[in-house]
Design brief:
The protein is mainly alpha-helical. The chain has 2 domains: 103 residues, Endonuclease Iii, domain 2 (Orthogonal Bundle); 101 residues, Endonuclease III, domain 1. Helices cover 53% and strands 2% of the residues. Strands 1-2 form a two-stranded antiparallel ribbon.
Amino acid sequence: MGTPLESREEQATEVVDRLHEEYPDSTISLNYSSRLELLIAVVLSAQCTDERVNEVTADLFEKYQGAEDYAAASEEQLAEDIYGITFHNNKGGYLQGIGEILTEEHDGEVPDTMSALTDLPGVGRKTANVVLQHGHDIVEGIVVDTHVQRLSRRLELTEEERPEAIEQDLLDVVPESEWQQFTHLLIDHGRAVCGARSADCEACVLADICPSEKGDSEVDLASGEAW
């Protein structure tokens, strides 16, 4: 198996440096042209692929251009308009509720604080972090999605299991200047090489520092189960 560097800080920095070389153009893969579109896209992306979200929002964003448009629509109509998105019925309700709150409490604008964003239906800390980073250029945390959760455990950057706890661990070891890009780098690597059930360790630029590398290791540290 690979041998992680002596400290988690060194490990995190080395991971970031290597992945920057591997994925120099790493960035968010959702399509949007405004803060509202970003917010809606990220809410829809929960447990759904970005590719599918981009397909659905191409028409959705033409039909609904302001918060008041979502507020005026019924949950059923919105669910129909996002059919094909995972949990489209629930998310139709989220979009209608988001439209109402933005219209009534924020003059139709997307707020720029963690507390105001997480008060919106369907918006947790992960979604709020994405909106703050890419909509408002405010970086105050690390977005922990399933790829970040899996890879940060495999690389022994954390032993935590819950996204909130993983984020707190990562904030202590990832350079603050890399908090935003860290997520995109791990997402790209997770999609290309280090999948949940298809880790290609032979092709991995991190294999020699990864304690989960399955050439020698019998255990996937992300799941605690045997490879």
